[in-house]
Design goal:
The protein is 25% helix and 27% strand. A hairpin with a 2-residue loop joins strand 14 and strand 15. Helix 6 packs parallel to helix 7. Strands 1, 10, 13, 14, 15, 16, 17 and 18 form an eight-stranded mixed β-sheet that branches. An eight-stranded parallel β-sheet has the order 2-9-8-7-6-5-4-3. Strands 11-12 form a two-stranded antiparallel ribbon. The chain has 343 residues and is of the alpha/beta class.
C-alpha cells in the first residue's frame, strides 16, 4: 500500500514538446526533489528530447545527476569563495554573482548572474568595468538574469533585460549568450528580434514539468477503516471523536510531505479571509487534509503520522474500502512518493 504518483505519460510529454517549441534553445531545470518526479526521471526525459544542457540547483545535485545526464550541467546556485569543493566533470558550468567569484574560478566554465529586480544576487552595474580582466581567466558561457514572477509595480520584463543588454554593450562585454528566467514566449521572441546576434536561453522548470496539472495525480491507498462513535478515544493523543463516523488510515504522511505547506503570498480580501479562517480552525485541531473522498477534501482526524494519515469520514458518508485509493492534492516540490506509475 503506497502513496503513488500516476503520470499520464503521453499527455505529460506532449506538454513538454509544446514548451520546447515555444522556447527554442531552452535549458530544462531539475532541482530540489526534481519537481516531484526525481532527478533520475527528469534526466531521462531531458535525454529523450536531446537538450544539450540541464540546470540543477546545487553542486551536490550536479554530482548526483552527472551519471544520468551526459550533457552540460549548469549549477544555478552561485559560487562562493571558500565553499566546500565538490568533484564535478568539466561539463559543469558554474553560476557566479560577483567579480570576486569570477576571479576564484580560474579556468572554469561560468555564467555570470546579473542583479535583477529580484534583488537576490548578481553583479551590479558599477562592477561591469572590473569584469574585463576577470573574464580573461575563465571560459565565459554567457550572462544570466533571474526575473521576478509578478510585477506589481507595472514594470516590463523585456525592458529590464534590454536595459542590461545596453549596459553590457556599453561596457564592451560579450553578448553572445543570455540565460533568462520567467519570460513569456512572446517576450523572448521580442528580445531575440532586437538582439539577433545574441542567443537567448530560457531556463524553465515549473512550466515544463508541472504546466499541465491534469497529466499527473497523487493517490494514497486506504490501509484500514474503523467505525467510531461520538466520544470514542483514538490516536496518539487519545482525543475524542466529535461525532459518529469512520477513521480512515491512508498511505501518505510527513515523510512523504503530507501536512507540509510553503508560505503563500496572499493578494486580495478573500484569500486573506480564507487564510484567517484556516488558522482559526487549526487552533481547535481542525485541519483539512489533501485527501479527497466522495467529492470533498476530508479533515485530518489528528496530525499526520510519519507514513500514514488518519482521516475522519462522518457517518452520513459511505467510507472507502481497504485497497481503495484517495486522490491527494499535494505540492509536487514538497512531496516524496513511494512509487511512480506511468499510464
Amino acid at each position: 500500500m503506497a502513496l503513488t504518483l500516476y503520470v499520464d505519460t503521453a499527455r505529460w510529454r506532449a506538454h513538454q514538446q509544446s514548451v520546447l517549441q515555444q522556447f527554442p534553445g531552452m535549458v530544462p531545470v531539475c532541482k530540489g526533489n526534481g519537481y516531484g518526479f526525481g532527478h533520475e526521471r527528469l534526466a531521462e526525459e531531458v535525454t529523450r528530447f536531446r537538450s544539450d544542457m540541464l540546470a540543477v540547483g546545487t553542486t551536490y545535485e550536479a554530482a548526483r545527476i552527472k551519471d544520468y545526464f551526459s550533457g552540460d550541467l549548469l549549477v544555478l546556485t552561485p559560487f562562493r569563495l571558500g565553499e566546500e569543493p565538490v568533484p564535478l566533470p568539466d561539463r559543469a558550468v558554474r553560476s557566479v554573482s560577483s567579480v570576486e567569484g569570477v576571479r576564484g574560478l580560474v579556468g572554469a566554465r561560468v555564467v555570470i548572474e546579473l542583479m535583477s529586480s529580484m534583488r537576490r544576487h548578481g553583479v551590479v552595474e558599477d562592477d561591469l568595468p572590473k569584469l574585463h580582466a576577470a573574464i580573461e581567466d575563465v571560459r565565459l558561457e554567457g550572462f544570466a538574469l533571474h526575473l521576478p514572477l509578478d510585477r506589481t509595480d507595472g514594470s516590463d520584463a523585456v525592458e529590464e533585460v534590454l536595459g542590461w543588454m545596453d549596459r553590457l554593450r556599453s561596457a564592451r562585454l560579450p553578448l553572445h549568450t543570455m540565460f533568462v528566467s520567467h519570460l513569456a514566449a512572446g517576450e523572448l521572441a521580442q528580445l531575440q528580434q532586437q538582439f539577433p546576434q545574441t542567443r537567448f536561453r530560457a531556463r524553465i522548470g515549473t512550466r515544463l514539468w508541472l504546466g499541465d496539472h491534469d497529466a499527473t495525480e497523487y493517490r494514497g491507498a486506504v490501509l484500514d477503516v474503523t467505525r467510531v462513535a461520538k466520544g470514542d478515544r483514538f490516536g496518539y493523543r487519545q482525543q475524542k471523536a466529535t461525532s459518529d463516523g469512520h477513521l480512515v488510515v491512508v498511505a501518505g504522511g510527513t515523510s512523504h510531505g503530507v501536512g507540509l505547506e510553503a508560505p503563500k503570498a496572499l493578494h486580495g480580501v478573500m484569500p486573506r479571509a480564507k487564510g484567517v479562517a484556516r488558522a482559526g480552525l487549526a487552533t481547535v485541531n481542525r485541519n483539512l487534509s489533501p485527501f479527497v473522498w466522495a467529492g470533498k477534501q476530508r479533515w485530518f482526524a489528528e496530525p499526520p503520522h510519519m507514513q500514514v494519515s488518519i482521516l475522519f469520514i462522518p457517518a452520513e458518508v459511505a467510507p472507502p474500502q481497504v485497497g481503495d485509493e484517495l486522490v491527494a492534492h499535494l505540492r509536487h516540490t514538497t512531496t516524496q512518493f513511494d512509487r511512480m506509475v506511468d499510464r
